[in-house]
Amino acid sequence: MTTDHIRATEPNERGDGEFDADGIVPVAGAARPSGLVLPRYRHDDPDTHPPMLFPDYGSTNLRAPKQPLALLPQRLTEVTGPLLGEGRLGELDHDLTRQHAGEPQGQRIIVHGRVLDGNGRPVPHTLVEIWQPNAAGRYRHANDNWPAPLDPNFTGVGRTLTDADGHYRFVTVQPGAYPWRNHPNAWRPAHIHFSLFGQAFTQRLVTQMYFPGDPLFFQDPVFNSVRDPLARERLISRYDHSVTEPEWALGFEFDIVLRGREATPFEDGEDDD
Amino acid sequence: MTEHPDLTPTFGTGAAVSTDPTPVAGVALDPTPSLGSTPSQTVGPYLHIGLLWPDGPDVVPAGTPGAISIRGQVFDGAGAVVPDALVETWQADPDGRFDHPDDPRGARPAAVPGFRGFGRSATDADGRYEIRTVKPGALPDADGETEAPHLNLSIFARGLLHRLVTRLYFPDEEAANGTDPVLAAVDPARRATLVARPEPDGFRFDIHLQGPDETVFFAV
């Protein structure tokens, strides 16, 4: 869509600064005119996301890369991404309480919120995928066999698209906490997994939504792997009485922020500063 | 939020563009509010219930002429296979185009019917993933050069608190790979980790999360 892009007629001056995030290697080269002007997505503050290696979470030890990450400049493959639509959705994918013959056990909840970019703009018509254990804390998964009951009326999988305003809404049940073997008497706080695509490869995000006031936070290395306490708070949903439905379900609000764009477009190839 | 002084835009400060102040549609030119991103968290061991689609590995439908398989294994730092990873792929169509509004050449559907550009495959008990696709075309680069045909890969797994990003290049594109700006910036000793190996019906691309053959991973 050429109307969305400014065509540069002269090469831009090239920033020659060194990328200062931890261990990221810049790509060398010299800019020449091309006319390919692409949006560019801001890099997050390094403490927003967990480090790859977080020894308290034992599974990172053999899986986190040891070498520093190289910087991938944002070119065509990075600023585009799959725009997945209605074809991915079943009629009841947004309501995890109506996917079986009967109702699942547990506290019925409504989880809603907006998907925004870092500039505060809604991300419309984007696919949101969720999965979770049942009210007893057990996933319907062959490898989850701790002694809590399965619920024949609960799969624990949901999908929806955000609307034009970036809003999404699921009906489900409150997931239970569950034990794991990471450390003695380890329990995961109740959470719902979220997967988001946004509009570009750069915006892809998989995260977990937690519930306010969970007493298990203190001992959970996954939650605590996020070093910035303000960023960590962004993983916790908010009880939302305005969405709670009388004699029906409790409401929780969880807004999700994907990386925002620079205010000004850049000529492709200017990513190495 | 982020303070990267070096990210100060140079665009708009040069004489060449100052004559055209037309704002980009939907993008304010004044300072924009900056919200902190939601942090990443691991997919955990049970991603399969939420993220697998029956047609996940089908970047193109079965029976597509010229379709290739891209397959490989994921290994951890002890050399053990990773049986609970998810590999996602994103790529241009065979003409090097994206059906996406931010492709400045214009969004248009691929000539290949049913081409989705996106694939996802979980690894099995042997750490194997596989997708079916067609080879992407080369991409224009701002420097007037081209990016060699490539796929972007995201790897998710228990023990990965954030996705890992890498690129797959093709071994039969030696000339294009030789001038690819991303490959050129990678330590030559590790460049081979980004190049797939030929197989009779496609290509093999193993991913080593750690160890002497550690794959090159990117911050994007």
UniProtKB/TrEMBL annotation, chain A:
UniProt similarity note: Belongs to the intradiol ring-cleavage dioxygenase family.
CDD domains reported for this sequence: 3_4-PCD_beta
Region (Disordered): 1-20
Composition bias, Basic and acidic residues: 1-17
Keywords for this protein: Dioxygenase, Oxidoreductase
Protein name (record): Protocatechuate 3,4-dioxygenase subunit beta
Keyword Transferase belongs to the record: no
Record domain Intradiol ring-cleavage dioxygenases: where: 111-139
Record carries keyword Oxidoreductase: yes
Xref: PANTHER family: DIOXYGENASE, PUTATIVE (AFU_ORTHOLOGUE AFUA_2G02910)-RELATED (PTHR33711), INTRADIOL RING-CLEAVAGE DIOXYGENASES DOMAIN-CONTAINING PROTEIN (PTHR33711:SF10)
Entries under PROSITE patterns matching the protein: INTRADIOL_DIOXYGENAS
TrEMBL record, chain B:
Oxidoreductase listed as a keyword: yes
Region feature (Disordered): 97-121
Comp. bias intervals (Basic and acidic residues): 97-106
Stretches assigned to the Intradiol ring-cleavage dioxygenases domain: 67-197
Family assignment from sequence similarity: Belongs to the intradiol ring-cleavage dioxygenase family.
Keywords assigned: Dioxygenase, Oxidoreductase
Source species: Plantactinospora endophytica
Protein name: Protocatechuate 3,4-dioxygenase subunit alpha
NCBIfam families: protocat_alph (TIGR02423)
Gene from which this protein is expressed: pcaG
